[in-house]
Amino acid sequence: MKTKFIFVTGGVVSSIGKGLAAASLGALLEARGLRVTIQKLDPYINVDPGTMSPFQHGEVFVTDDGAETDLDLGHYERYTSSKLSKKSNFTTGQVYFSVIEKERRGDYLGGTVQVIPHITDQIKLNILENAKGSDIAIVEIGGTVGDIESLPFLEAIRQLKSDRGAGNVLYLHVTLVPYIKTAGELKTKPTQHSVKELREIGIQPDILLCRCEQDVPQDMKAKIALFCNVEEKAVITSQDAEHIYAVPMALNQQGLDDQVVEKLNIWTKAPDLSHWQQVVSKLTNPGSGEVRIAVVGKYVDLKESYKSLSEALTHGGIANDCRVKLVYLDSEKIEEEGGEKALADVDGILVPGGFGERGTEGKIKAIEYARVNKVPFFGICLGMQMAAVEYARNVCKLPEAFSSEFKPDCESPVIHLMEEQKGVDKKGGTMRLGAYPCSLTKGTFAQKAYGATEISERHRHRYEFNNLFRKCLEEKGMVISGVYKEGDLVEIIELPDHPWFLGCQFHPEFKSKPLNPHPLFKAFIAATKAKRG
């Protein structure tokens, strides 16, 4: 089957839910037996989001091949079986970088390099490369229609309809139908203007996905269809859902996937959504009550910074048939006030990754509380490193123990810069990135959770456990339960005399899915359930 393309654009406002819409549509088409790949095109000039602040961009999602990407790729992987890669996300910065490299190499000798055709051709080339081997390629265009920086991307996808044939390309526009409380009315004008803007640059949407707080009545759908030049049945409403994993079923009930396969002339089986129904049922009516998990970090005011993490904890709850309530605690406040009061009523403590010294002492205090009070603890990346520091300080009696990331001249650098990172002066794309193998010790928390002794997990860090301190910590009871043998790098640490205390250098949250919860999150939530009793 020749690959068919679905281009997802957004209008009126940012953060309207294009990523979830694309991911949910991918889930529906996979449930029909189609091979799906999903791609995100970001109009910003950064080469990737790797050097951007979480407050600017939210989470940076990492793929197996080491790409630092937009958080929407996390949605794509969680909702589908697609294995995404560096080709699955590209930016204006990458496109211009590629074109300028070609110009310097002499590929355009004699020609004037311009946005059209050279930039748009590079965008199309990237889209087509990623689509190889799939039945359906869903491509989300970041930003909002009307933004200057997204115009080359919109022009490129306009051209692709002519290049690939009208029957092989579909445009899905996600727009807003706001409810004006003072008037007590839904308003269609923002959607009309958004579609008008899109049509002015040559793109006629085939399907409108209308985001709304309340259901859009049929007469209003007819009005939108008339003014936006689409079929009435192609006006799909996407009302706010209680759980994001209910969105695929909600869109199926609205007929979105039926419209897509009809307009692309694809014959498929009816979708089997029974697994999604089970997920939503467990989220809505958990059989084992609720556990409270403290997430101790410094980006707690922006939950998007921990998107994959919060979802992975939810998946752990699904696996254990319980609701997971997240309590976000600012590590700087714990640093100032101590953690006894804030952590007294939680069933588990998780310290996530992060960069920079701010708030690290608060994380160490939270870890000490978990260790001493036998509260299930999970440390990820920096959380694992600070667990090693806390143990070195308070159990091994090395009061100056710290990370050389924060104190280069510390006497006991339990965490230090990786050998291959020394001499690296560029920030972008230079960390230890992507999937690496890890060997597990039999009988440990980690090995029992995975049910295997060889695993592979994704990384994003420069600093690593210092093996000079390994013997000292092991003699005092810490277990090194996971190592990267090739580089003799510590990957997982545990405390066996604790209900569940584990820190890992990698980011397991990037591989967790609602239909396949990650083993470590499953085990962590099980331990918190046991504590709660």
Ranges where pLDDT stays below 50 over 5 or more residues in a row are none
Derived from helix and strand composition plus strand pairing, the structural class reads alpha/beta
The number of domains is: 2
CATH architecture of the largest domain: 3-Layer(aba) Sandwich
Q: Could you state the CATH homologous superfamily of the largest domain?
A: P-loop containing nucleotide triphosphate hydrolases
Count of individual beta strands: 23
Rg measurement, Å = 25 Å
Question: What name is given to the CATH topology of the largest domain?
Answer: Rossmann fold
Residue fraction in strands: 15-25%
Straight-line N-to-C gap: 54 Å
Please give the CATH class of the largest domain.
Answer: Alpha Beta
Question: Portion of residues in helices?
Answer: 25-40%
Molecular structure report:
- There is one protein chain.
- This protein has 19 helices and 23 strands.
- With 533 residues, it is of the alpha/beta class.
- The protein has 2 domains: 4-278, Rossmann fold; 287-532, 3-Layer(aba) Sandwich (Rossmann fold), CATH 3.40.50.880.
- The strands form 5 sheets. A 9-stranded mixed β-sheet has the order 13-12-14-15-23-22-21-18-19, sandwiched between helices.
- Strand 10, helix 8 and strand 11 form a beta-alpha-beta unit.
